[in-house]
Amino acid sequence: MLRITIVIAALVLSVDTSNAQNSDSLLLQLEWQWFRASSQAEKDSLHWEKLKLLINERPNEASTLQSMRSYNVENFKDTAELKKFRWNKSLIAFSQHEYLLAWSEVNKYKNLVGELRSEEEWLLYLIIASKYSAEELDSAMVGVNVLFPELKQVDCLCEVVNFKIQEKPIYKVMSAVIPGSGSIAQGKVGKGIGSLILNGAAIYGLYELSVAKLYLNAGLWTVTWFPKIYLGNIELTKKITEKRQLKKRNELSNNCELVLKNHLNKYPLKILF
């Protein structure tokens, strides 16, 4: 799975801890003023001041997102302020793994601005879509490729999101016909030869028991050990196939993460004030 959240947290939501003490003091003052406020309008104004301070100083804390959830957006009289609020909320929600909320907020932001008009806006939209829906991501990439060809490399997100583990039954069939051959065909020669030797030894042991007319022992061998060795060879082939598929997906994911880092450095997703 892509570590996109970590990328955003590292490149976007960095906080200067040197101001932590000052912000704590200001927050306490705002809390006290809010407690003493006599009107709802004054309380709403103080809540907004507190929220701006939290967004500025502590964007990566759960309490900040909770405060944004509880803020009444009807208090906004300025559309520009509401746009900033929606953008910040979607960015912070995504960084805290609140993907449904992030998707809801980024779409509300999109509706406010009419259409996403910059690389930064589309980049945030694509990253959030990659966690929300493969269909939405594919659809968004179509628009991005037309408007901002430079972001075309980000279509690696589609490859990762749409990647599915394929069983490759041909290898299982090969191992069923000739034990170990499916593993060998996938480059695991040692394991394949080991399976072939074990199954050969099992067949030879069964043959020797039959020649010695130890039919009961041969029957028990056939029912117990031989299936484990034979079916175990097929299961081993399946696990090798899955491991190869997972390795391919991880390679795609790691490569895509590098692409995202480059684009986020070029088009940083910043908290808006």
DSSP summary, beta strand count: 0
Instruction: Summarize the biggest pleated sheet.
Output: none
Q: Give the overall shape, derived from the CA principal axes.
A: elongated
Question: How many distinct domains?
Answer: 3
Terminal Cα span = 32 Å
Q: Approximately what portion of the residues adopt beta-strand conformation?
A: under 5%
Report the C-alpha radius of gyration, rounded.
29 Å
State mean pLDDT (0 to 100 scale): 81
Instruction: Give the helix tally.
Output: 14
Q: Helicity, in percent?
A: over 70%
Unreliable parts: none
What structural category arises from helix and sheet content?
A: mainly alpha
Order of helices and strands: HHHHHHHHHHHHHH
Structure overview:
It is a single chain. The chain starts with a helix and ends in a 7-residue tail after the last helix. The protein has 273 residues and is mainly α. It is built from 14 helices and no strands. Helix 8 (134-147) runs antiparallel to helix 9. The chain folds into 3 domains: 19-75, no CATH class; 79-162; 169-250.
What structural keywords apply?
single chain, mainly alpha, 14 helices, elongated
Please specify the SSE layout and strand pairing.
Layout: H1 4-11, H2 20-36, H3 40-57, H4 62-70, H5 79-95, H6 99-113, H7 119-132, H8 134-147, H9 156-162, H10 169-177, H11 181-185, H12 189-211, H13 215-223, H14 225-266
Helix pairs in contact: 1-14, 2-3, 5-6, 6-7, 7-8, 8-9, 9-14, 10-14, 12-13, 12-14
